[in-house]
DNA sequence: AGAATAATTAATAGAGCTATTAAACAAGTC
DNA sequence: GACTTGTTTAATAGCTCTATTAATTATTCT
């Protein structure tokens, strides 16, 4: 009956999934509708039948990715934990989510540069979400600061620091893998080492500063 | 006599410079030899006359960029300064150099993904330079650690931390500029704020950890 | 000046890509 | 069975790009 792999998913969805996979790997410009069609096992025109243009199809994929990235910052409440432990959990879960999608950061940055449509999508996503996401953290930070348990730092700065450290790991992963010839196991080890270091770095970096501010 | 802007530089150099500019802005795939020729003001075939292939021309540009990036890690000795002050200088000068070439990090990462040739160039550059670059820092870190002035951390981890924080600033710059509509002045202000925060973060992050390791 | 070499151009072959069009096919409905 | 609607395909127009070729112009050398 159905010609393609998963009996279930129709061609329309099949195309989206294959497009997702290929775009993630080679970026918008690196993939042709012909290539997508080949991998799906259908005629190239069918892609245009369902999605009209390549840009359109891409946008659907990209929006999904952005939604996922934003979701990483949503606060799962770890009730009853100290601020430090909560922060540690957040850093680690952010890191772990990236580790499960290691190509994602590079992909998004890449398209941000090469694909004019994307910056508008990113802009909208950010405008809608950032204030909401920093809000609760900001309150906690102020409490901790007043109690003398951390130095003064804005929620935005802290989030940028964490994001920088976490994401950079995955941006440079292709280099690491290639330069050191890492297999999957050693890659995972590298992840664990790096994750620990990042947690220590961030937690230590917000400890209160002595007043001897020569 | 000469048809093009700077009387001095011959066509060959002119082409290289224009290629540099355009590749930095739009990446390898985003630029055609036709476009380069137009901007130089010469015939498209001339580019192939001097550089044979587009890939060849690109490689010349890219190698220059890598050389520059590596040079950022070379240690200028600030004699007589404390370790902390020296480290601060290093972080700031790394940041400043990037601030003067804000498109460079994105460009390199971008090509790393899209342009198979580049990973080999990067690999070679790294293999040749990293051990040499971490060497002297490693020694200093050990001294400081023994003296109880910092926590234990490897030179590589510290360099990755600094690089992550600095580079990420510039990777997300296009987003910042677009989302907040930054002009040049406010961009510079943002740089200064971020630079200060990074210095504090890094210095604080390596302070010794109390033994109460509950 | 005239010969040899270098720089530059016009023209185009050859390839790949997107999007469109018109036709073929499948399946259900009356 | 003919009609309708949705799905899929083959064919191709039209574009852009790289690289080559052969011809033209400029420069250098003797």
The CATH topology of the largest domain in chain A corresponds to Tetracycline Repressor, domain 2
Query: What low-confidence regions of chain A span 5 or more consecutive residues with pLDDT below 50?
Result: 1-8
Radius of gyration of chain A: 21 Å
Helix content of chain A: over 70%
**What percent strand of chain A?**
under 5%
How many domains of chain A?
A: 2
Instruction: Specify the structural class of chain A.
Output: mainly alpha
Most extensive interface, chain pair and sizes: A-B, 42 and 42 residues
Largest sheet of chain A: none
Give the quaternary arrangement of the chains. homodimer
| Sequence of secondary-structure elements of chain A | HHHHHHHHHH
**Mean pLDDT level of chain A:** 90
CATH architecture of the largest domain in chain A: Orthogonal Bundle
* Number of distinct helices of chain A: 10
Query: Which CATH class of the largest domain in chain A is shown?
Result: Mainly Alpha
CATH superfamily of the largest domain in chain A: Tetracycline Repressor, domain 2
Shape of chain A: elongated
Distance between the termini of chain A: 78 Å
Number of strands of chain A: 0
Would you summarize the structure shown here?
Chain A is mostly helical and 214 residues long. The first copy, chain A, has ten helices and no strands. Chain A folds into two domains: 42 residues, Homeodomain-like (Arc Repressor Mutant, subunit A, Orthogonal Bundle); 147 residues, Orthogonal Bundle (Tetracycline Repressor, domain 2), CATH 1.10.357.
């Amino acid at each position: 009956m159905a010609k393609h792999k998963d009996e279930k998913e129709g061609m329309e969805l099949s195309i989206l999934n294959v497009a997702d996979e290929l775009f993630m790997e080679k970026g918008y410009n690196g993939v042709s509708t012909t290539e997508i069609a080949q991998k799906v096992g259908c005629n190239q025109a069918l892609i245009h039948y369902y999605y009209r243009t390549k840009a359109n199809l891409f946008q659907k994929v990209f929006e999904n990715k952005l939604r996922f990235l934003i979701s990483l910052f949503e606060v799962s409440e770890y009730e009853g934990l100290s601020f430090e432990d909560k922060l540690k959990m957040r850093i680690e879960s952010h890191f772990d989510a990236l580790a499960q999608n290691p190509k994602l950061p590079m992909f998004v940055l890449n398209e941000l540069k090469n694909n004019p449509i994307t910056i508008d999508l990113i802009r909208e996503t950010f405008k809608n979400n950032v204030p909401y996401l920093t809000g609760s953290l900001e309150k906690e930070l102020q409490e901790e600061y007043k109690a003398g348990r951390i130095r003064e730092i804005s929620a935005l700065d802290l989030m940028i620091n964490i994001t920088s450290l976490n994401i950079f790991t995955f941006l440079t992963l292709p280099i690491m893998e290639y330069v050191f010839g890492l297999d999957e196991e050693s890659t995972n080890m590298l992840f664990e080492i790096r994750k620990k270091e990042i947690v220590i770095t961030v937690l230590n970096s917000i400890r209160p500063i002595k007043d001897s501010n020569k």
